[in-house]
Amino acid sequence: MSAVLAVEVPYWGQSLLRVLGGLVAVLLPAGTIVYLFLFKMMSFMQSRLGPMEAGPYGSLQLVAEVGKWMQKEDLAPENADRTIFKMAPLVVLVSTFLLVAVIPFGPDAYFTNFAVGVFFGLAVSSISVLGILIAGWASANKYSLLGGLRAAGQLIAYELPLVLATLGVVIQAESMNFQEIVVAQNTGAIFGFEWLGNPFIFTQFIGFLIFMIAVQAELTQAPFDMPIAESELVSGYMTEYSGFRFLIFFIAEFATAGIFALIASLLFLGGWGVPFVWFDWNSLDDVSWWMNLVGPLIMLTKMLLLTFIIMWVRFSYPRFREDQLQTFAWKVLIPLSLANIGITAILKVAV
Amino acid sequence: MPKVPGLIKGLGVTLGTLGKTVTEGAATVQYPHEKEAPPVRARGVIALHEGNCTACMLCARSCPDWCIYIEGHKQLAPPRRAGGKPRQVNHLDRFDIDYALCMYCGICVEVCPFDALFWSPEYEYSEPRIADLLHDKDKLGEWMETVPEAPALEAGAQSK
């Protein structure tokens, strides 16, 4: 990142840039998703217009909402475990920020270039489970506790298909580094046809489906929103939270949606790259510097496309029952993803 | 997998509604900017035709939540025919409806034997102070202007 503008940036400057970049990478997708999909698309799908008063077409509604939440009182129940209760939303948000650290947006535009980025990403994404669980536990409220336990059970159950679906991609790309996965997709070829590269959505289509379903459940979006099922549990683990801390839960939910969409686009849609054949590039070093500017835009487009699908499913389907949710994960998704790994491995060795 | 077509159909419904809202507009109305026209026979507010009221109290007695207040006194009116005895009539002093209490059941309109009460579709009369929702007979009389024309009588019906 230091070499983006061919200027030597001191270490503190690099750190500052990384923090600012991280904030942008977390808050920009969250804001876009909330306004574009949660406010507008959901309203249109219900034949209404959504917020129209704050700013042109209600575009400043989010600012108004944030302002409203910021001025509300920061309440904590009398019997709550206060320290942990107040810490829980931050733990969830930390998981989001750690996730964004491994996502590359261009050949040089990354925060860190882990050799095992996929492993790190999947590992830190489960920190949010801890935050949700301690939020439910510390609230001293039976609805919160039930919601927290449901969330823990659900997130652990769907972590597995998520990891197993990713493994197919890792086997095919022969790397756990996000950059190398992107390069593998953009330099590859399907049946000798090089023009489109080889986005793994074609060869790993089952893996992509399993990944998106598991992401839907990881984000606790409908039809997998049992942890915050409002007709059963008020608002699950978020019941006792108000004001600023509720806002953090809310931001984390939609920022994580955006970041999982970014990870899915890296793993299955070719990430920030364009097929290298277009510009006669052969490896990562050949890629032109302007991809650092175009890459984030490509990533944003792919993220919007994938979050559109996530939100579309969310607004269309009713909620699963709790036992159906577990059955679906353990009896359908996990065997399917294991079979996917097996077939991918056999084909990788044989072909 | 018999369930898959239903799942895809569900996605189609929401996407179809999205497209329809974008092209044809929403089913909702942006209320303070454009006013929704209620149906002609909507129960918005009750209007009083004071000349027809005889202060018979039927409406006040039939009101389930006692939101109608009527006061009147007897007085003498000139005779109908020359040389006759002066008639005794009820004069209406006060006729109030408390819309903070009214539940819009319409029994008073139904029960009135002299066609003094009417439904009007007007609905914008909320007040910052709850006491202002007590409409007196002058205000109830003003609502008469908003009462729609009565529907035409059926063929063969008798009219006075």
Write up this protein.
The complex is a heterodimer of chains A (about 350) and B (about 160). By secondary structure, chain A is mainly α. Chain A has 13 helices and no strands. Chain A has one domain (about 75-350). In chain A, α3 packs antiparallel against α4 (about 115-125). With about 160 residues, chain B is an alpha+beta fold. Chain B has a domain at about 45-145: Alpha-Beta Plaits (2-Layer Sandwich), CATH 3.30.70. In chain B, about 25% of the residues lie in helices and about 20% in strands. In chain B, the strands form 2 sheets. Chain B has a 3-stranded antiparallel beta sheet. The longest helix of chain B has 21 residues, at about 5-25. Chain B is elongated. The mean pLDDT of chain B is about 85. The interface between A and B is medium-sized, with 14 and 15 residues.
Structural key phrases:
heterodimer, A: 351 residues, mainly alpha, 13 helices, 0% strand, B: 160 residues, alpha+beta, Alpha-Beta Plaits, 4 helices, 20% strand, elongated
Brief description of this entry?
Chain A is mainly α. Chain A has 13 helices and no strands.
Rg of chain A is: 21 Å
Most strands sheet of chain A: none
What is the number of strand segments of chain B? 5
What is the averaged pLDDT score of chain A? 84
Oligomer: heterodimer
Domain count of chain A: the total is: 1
Largest interface: A-B, 14 and 15 residues
Overall shape of chain A: it is globular
The backbone outline of chain B, from C-alpha atoms, is elongated
SSE run of chain A: HHHHHHHHHHHHH
Number of helices of chain A: 13
Distance from N terminus to C terminus of chain A (CA atoms, Å) equals 38 Å
Helix/strand order of chain B, N-terminal first? HEHEEHEEH
Query: pLDDT average of chain B, as an integer?
Result: 87
- What's the Cα radius of gyration of chain B? 24 Å
Structural class of chain A: mainly alpha
- Cα separation of the termini of chain B: 71 Å
Number of strands of chain A: 0
Largest sheet of chain B: 3 strands, antiparallel
Number of helices of chain B: 4
Residue share in β-strands of chain B: 15-25%
